[in-house]
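Sanity check. The docking grid for zinc ion depends on where the pocket ends up, so I'm generating a full predicted complex first rather than guessing from homology. Inputs follow.
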Amino acid sequence: MPGDCIVPGCTRQAAQRKGGLCELHAWRRQHGIPDEQPVQDRLPPFARVVESCIQLSDVDSEDDAAWHLAIERLKKSLQRWWIKELAPPAVVAADPREEADKEVGR
Ligand SMILES: [Zn+2]
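Predicted complex below; grid placement will be based on this.
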């Protein structure tokens, strides 16, 4: 029976035939993503927005790179929330204002 993932601090269950890694860390190694990157549990889109806001408020005010990263993370989470919960694609595509905006180049 497989135990926990071999990556320190990871409590996920090791997957079969992944060399003691969980599915997430096996995927990360396959795609060249460092093990140390914090594991983001799948959160509902709005919970991700809230988390992004908290991360932004926690950023060191002297660290421009971290601030920009946090801003981008927040934008992405808002975009995802919008797409997943607020604007079904069929509604957006059928919105006549979208076409009007394109015509006047807004
Ligand atoms: Zn793991």
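Relevant for the grid: The mean pLDDT is 84.
Also worth noting: Residues 1-39 form one domain.
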